[in-house]
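Chain A, query sequence.
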Amino acid sequence: MIQAIFDLYQQEHAAKKENKNEIKIYVSEKKMKVNINGFKKEYSVSTGALKGQKLFANDLRTPLGRYKVIKIQDSTKWKFKTTSGAYGPWFIRLKTAWSGIGIHGIHDENLIGDANSHGCIRLRNQDIHELVAHVYKGLEVVIFP
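Chain A, predicted structure.
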């Protein structure tokens, strides 16, 4: 009887772990895996131009670790230097030790799949539109090497 209860607990725990709402980003693979309330999807992404853990602002690395979504912002009118639309239509801001880190769209979708960002995670604009329909404040984002 005790073994049966233990087995049931293990199965329930494994199911909860499998259905945990989160976004997982794999920097080396340039992939994002999304699992949010039954919405499951995999996207190609771009990440920091340099490999390794982020050490300081503007070091061109994507920070590795566990973070939370703190804000979802309309970025359609944002510019980077002189580039209009550099952040695409949406910016999903993450709570990290560095300001300005997030998941966002891109002005040139041919750059997706490469290591070329300043540290953010870039998606195709159609993908960020789809993603923001499911993302919420407090959602966990895990970034792996």
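The two ends are 43 Å apart (CA to CA). Residues 2-18 form the longest helix (17 residues).
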